[in-house]
Amino acid sequence: MVSVRVTPIDGWGYMETLDGNLADPFTVRIDESAVDIGSGILGWRGLVDDDTAKYAGMPFEMSPRHTPWSGTVVINIKSGQTYAFSGMADTTGLECDWL
């Protein structure tokens, strides 16, 4: 398992349903890498494993935002059957070896 630091970005089209505010940076645990997250898009799956984070314990999927790899991702964090956050984020410690 790999831990990655995620910093949400206030970008076009982001959605936050818990309180409407961007979260502070948090850590996620990568459980699956280079996995098809839909429509042939490869990405990562895992859990927010930062106990102090707004999204603590929630599952996520994320994919590279740019090619070539820039460290920026599109991330969707689920809360039950809906999204708690959907948008872009910068990452620290994440590698993408399939682009």
Residue share in helix:
under 10%
| Rounded Rg | 12 Å
Total beta-strand segments: 7
Determine the N-to-C terminus distance: 21 Å
Task: Tell me the structural class.
Answer: mainly beta
Q: Major sheet: size, sense and barrel closure?
A: 6 strands, antiparallel, barrel
Keyword list:
99 residues; mainly beta; six-stranded antiparallel β-barrel; 7 strands; 0% helix; globular
What does this protein look like?
The chain is an all-beta fold and 99 residues long. It has no helices and seven strands. A six-stranded antiparallel barrel has the order 1-3-4-5-6-7. A hairpin with a 2-residue loop joins strand 6 and strand 7. The protein is globular. The mean pLDDT is 96.
Reconstruct the topology from this structure.
Elements: E1 2-8, E2 15-16, E3 26-36, E4 42-48, E5 59-64, E6 72-79, E7 82-92
Antiparallel strand pairs: 1-3, 1-7, 2-7, 3-4, 4-5, 5-6, 6-7
Put the structure in a nutshell.
The chain is mostly beta strands. Helices cover 0% and strands 53% of the residues.
